[in-house]
Design brief:
Strand content: 15-25%
Helix content: 25-40%
Oligomer: single chain
Number of strands: 24
Bound molecules: nicotinamide-adenine-dinucleotide
Length: 493
């Protein structure tokens, strides 16, 4: 089905103890297509504390049986789920676009990422184990084992509604934990479809539980309930800090991955066409709604005008529209609130003295009338201390900040309280190397887009972007979901 043709509304329930169940109150909420808000895409139970308690109880009951299976047997379930998702890739990608708004190509990439992550952790299952350490005495064995934590809770954002749930679920499940997950209310459909795939792949009842609804009510129960051994959260700093405090009160294990204000530094020696291309992809791709999106470009003054002119031209050339349309470069904002927030930041930046050189407006004509669309936006002459240069916008808004030289560019890049991703565009290998050493960010790129991650490599921020004690993704992601036991065994007698 194409543009203008609406899908039948999908009615989802909570997934608790292997059953699809309504919220006790019977209350529900609906999601509309951000590209055409006349389409109701899906509706969900509005759950709170009691549904969350039931989900935790179901997870607790199922956990020991799941942990008793070998890691390889658990890995087979993930590999099978990977195959099931792959066989439904096109349908899932279209559903993702209808609910969250990103372009079909972006959704297909994201569904493929989920397929690959399950496959990766299916393989990792063959390597899960401990370490043998030489003992100081003969006839003694010293080794470690890896154990699951028990019930773990996952709270996820809307902007990667299948990749993020899966990059938390895969290491949690393969390690032998049971899970309660609460997806963001703007886009829960992908988590529901992943639950279906895992169930079909043979995941025992109760090992995975999904609860939708009120973030505060569900999230507070997940953070405070003593049966939840650990909680992994991805979302905003304001919510992340609240959840972290609740976990700290009972000293529960916490992993909080939050926002960024990601710079791309453009040096005077850079190929400006390459720089513009990288910045536009990293800043306007995914409608700027990526935690690793470039939202600040710090440009050496001598090339700032030339770079800005090219970036503005590129922004004006991008095709905005319904993500289901062929050839579209950028979809809508996820919601009217997100759109309004983006536009408010553009107005604020201009008040602070920035100059608008491309975009800045909501799009409302013709096909745009029923969606949350805005133009790709470039602001220049931004000062490092302006709010637009320091705060996450989470939309297609790029701030160009001129810098006197390389050292000042690094100083400006590091002058914010977050540190998620970053990039530099230069032909100077020495400066590139100094940048990799000095930049305060968890992801450091040279001549690449600040977005885009390898699933086999560790990911996470520093400073206020993350609690930074455990990384996500890569083989090391299992560290958060396991504990290590050290065994001393004397067989000398
Ligand atoms: P959000 O903080 O509003 O919501 C995240 C999740 O928390 C949702 O499931 C929400 O329902 C839930 N929630 C809301 N209130 C809660 C409460 N009081 N207690 C517990 N849970 C609660 O974030 P969002 O708008 O969904 O996502 C956008 C943010 O996520 C951006 O800041 C972005 O940078 C960040 N993000 C970070 C990464 C990363 O890996 N660092 C990845 C993607 C997104």
């Amino acid at each position: 089905m194409g543009i203008g043709e609406f899908w039948p509304v999908r009615t989802y329930q909570n997934f608790i103890g292997g059953e699809w169940v309504a919220a006790k109150s019977g209350e529900r909420f609906e999601n509309r297509n951000p590209a055409d808000s006349r389409e109701v895409v899906a509706d969900y139970p509005k759950s709170g504390e009691s549904e969350t308690k039931a989900a935790i109880e179901a997870a607790k009951t199922a956990q020991a049986g799941w942990a008793a299976q070998t890691p390889v047997a658990r890995g087979r379930v993930l590999s099978k789920a990977s195959e099931i998702l792959a066989s439904r890739k096109n349908e899932l990608a279209e559903l993702l676009t209808r609910e969250e708004g990103k372009t079909l190509a972006e959704s297909q990439g994201e569904v493929q990422r989920a397929v690959d992550i399950f496959r990766f952790f299916g393989g990792i299952s063959y390597t899960l184990g401990g370490q043998t350490i030489p003992h100081d005495l003969p006839g003694n064995l010293l080794y470690t084992t890896r154990e699951p934590l028990g019930v773990v809770a996952l709270i996820t954002p809307w902007n990667f509604p299948i990749a993020i749930p899966v990059w938390k679920l895969a290491p949690a499940l393969v390690s032998g934990n049971s899970v309660v997950i609460k997806p963001a209310s703007q886009a829960p459909a992908m988590t529901m479809e992943v639950a279906k795939a895992l169930s079909e792949a043979g995941l025992p009842k109760g090992v995975l539980n999904v609860v939708t609804g009120d973030g505060r009510a569900v999230g507070t129960e997940l953070a405070r309930n003593p049966d939840v051994a650990a909680l992994s959260f991805t979302g905003s700093y304001s919510v992340g800090t609240q959840v972290y405090r609740q976990l700290a009160e009972r000293m529960a294990r916490a992993q909080m991955e939050m926002g960024g204000k990601n710079p791309t530094i453009v040096l005077a020696d850079a190929d400006l066409d390459l720089a513009v291309n990288l910045v536009a992809r990293a800043g306007f791709g995914l409608t700027g709604q990526a935690c690793t999106a470039t939202s600040r470009v710090i440009v050496e003054k001598s090339v700032a005008t030339a770079f800005t002119e090219k970036l503005a031209a590129k922004a004006k050339s991008l095709k905005v529209g319904n993500g289901l349309t062929q050839g579209i470069d950028m979809g809508p904002a996820v919601s009217v609130n997100q759109l309004q927030g983006n536009l408010e930041y553009v107005a604020l930046a201009q008040k602070e003295g920035a100059q608008l050189v491309a975009g800045g407006n909501r799009l409302t004509a013709g096909d745009f009338a029923n969606g949350w669309f805005m133009e790709p936006t470039v602001l220049t002459n931004v000062k490092p201390t302006d709010r637009i240069a320091c705060e996450e916008v989470f939309g297609p808004v790029i701030a160009v900040v001129p810098a006197g030289d390389f050292n000042e560019a690094i100083q400006i890049a590091n002058g914010v309280d977050v540190g998620l991703s970053s990039s530099i565009v230069t032909r100077d290998i020495k400066k590139a190397m100094i940048y990799t050493e000095k930049i305060q960010a968890g992801v450091v790129k040279v001549n690449q887009i600040s977005t885009g991650l390898a699933l086999q490599a560790p990911f996470g921020g520093i400073k206020k972007s993350s609690t930074d004690s455990f990384k996500e993704q890569g083989a090391g992601a299992i560290d958060f979901y396991t504990r290590i036991k050290t065994v001393y065994l004397d067989y000398s007698a």
